[in-house]
Amino acid sequence: MKHLYTFLFCLPFLCFAQDKAEKRLLKKADKIHAKAYTVDTHADAPINMMDMEGFDVGAKHNYDEDGTQIDFPRMKEGGMDAMFFAVYLGQGKRTPEANAEAKEKALKIFAKIHDAVKTNADKVSLVTTAKEGYAAHKQGKLGVFIGMENGWPVGTDLSNLKLYYDLGLRYITLAHSFNNDLSDSSGDPQGAEHGGISKIGEACIAEMNRLGIVVDVSHLSDSAFYDVMRLSKVPVFASHSSCRALCDVKRNMTDDMIKLLASKGGVIQINFVADFLKKPSAEVAVSIRTIRMQVQKADATPEDKKKLNAELRQIKYKYPSDVPTVKDVANHIDHVVKLVGIDHVGIGMDMDGGSDVIGVEDVSKIKNVTIELLRRGYSEKDIKKIWGGNTMRVLAAAENFSKK
Ligand SMILES: [Zn+2]
């Protein structure tokens, strides 16, 4: 009994001490974000910019009201200095006509991103190199990099690469959830088609190396990943993938893949999609997968997508224990660090494309990741590498190779 009284007497002091420790962590995180250059490699904001009626990426939105996760004011608020906006197209037919249509759609997305940057030119810059990113940061401006998710708009005409490069493109995820002309995907229900990277895909990688466009191995089949490792003359990254050892899905990378990627100077940027961080129960996994395949079909209308995304969110409320927290994110970061060291992990949250972590509901809350990393003993130097330094190293390597 005496111990109980002692405990109860001390409880307010313990809480006070804990509160103080938390405040200290927050202060430290603020300090880090004020100095560090933070970059996220996979942002699907352009989906909302294209499909959501009246959506203005320059205005502040509320996640609880409309489910959106990214806009420029929330990036500023959260201490998110730059994001790779994705020119994303769900895979459609691969006929010459369909390829031409994909190219046309991709060009519209590029134009939309350029317009948004121009409209917000006092606060935002389009950036294409690490140097430009740092320069914008110095001026107090946010950076928008451009990546392409799914090489479908490249089609079979590699001259498209230079066209997109000139529009600011600096990485391409060769395939999305279905096989295309360049590569096999990890998600295609038909399985392998090329046995990895196709012949055109090989030439595509050589041209991307020549131009200075980073090859993104996220979404690719394992064989395609190993082909990229053999073919690319410069380091590559996985713009939004997590660890298969912690969450056994084909979209994630095995330890062997992470080791090989790191041995060639690459980076895995941890994805915040719930079922890539923490494996849901079998029942939930099937419903999520079915809905997601429907969302990713090229002919899904904005209304279809809205309805399907609402269904996805419903699943979250029905099974809250399946939804990961910021601790799960840090577990994946820890895993990579233990496996290959601090220089090969980054962050690609996949916001507005399925990112779903309790505590990091939108981009204004990314400091919670930093706080968790501090809690686990990561130094300021480590955190700077995770939040952007490693990614910028890969981008600079691609650029330097292209200049040779
Ligand atoms: Zn993706």
Oligomer state equals single chain
The small-molecule ligands in this entry are: zinc ion
Number of strands: 9
- Tell me the span between the first and last alpha carbons: 76 Å
Give start-end ranges of low-pLDDT stretches: none
Helix and strand pattern: HEHHHEHEHEHEHEHEHEHHHHEHH
Quick one: biggest sheet? Answer: 6 strands, parallel
Q: Averaging pLDDT over every residue, what do you get?
A: 93
Helicity range of the residues? 40-55%
Radius of gyration, taken over Cα atoms and rounded to an integer in Å: 21 Å
- Structural class, by secondary structure, is alpha/beta
Proportion of residues in extended strands: 5-15%
Gross geometry: globular
Total number of helices: 16
Précis, in short:
This protein is α/β, with parallel strands linked by helices and 404 residues long. It contains 16 helices and 9 strands.
Main attributes of the structure:
404 residues; six-stranded parallel sheet; binds zinc ion
Structure report:
The protein has 404 residues and is α/β, with parallel strands linked by helices. It is built from 16 helices and nine strands. The strands form two sheets. Strands 1, 2, 3, 4, 5 and 6 form a six-stranded parallel β-sheet that branches. The site of zinc ion (ZN) has 4 residues, from loops. Residues 149, 219, 240, 353 line the site of zinc ion.
List the helices and strands and how they pair.
Blueprint: H1 2-35, E1 39-43, H2 45-51, H3 63-66, H4 72-78, E2 82-88, H5 96-119, E3 124-126, H6 130-138, E4 142-149, H7 159-166, E5 169-173, H8 199-211, E6 214-216, H9 222-231, E7 237-238, H10 255-263, E8 267-270, H11 274-277, H12 282-295, H13 302-318, H14 326-340, E9 345-347, H15 367-375, H16 380-403
Parallel strand pairs: 1-2, 2-4, 3-4, 4-5, 5-6, 7-8, 8-9
The chain binds zinc ion.
Zinc ion binds at residues 149, 219, 240, 353.
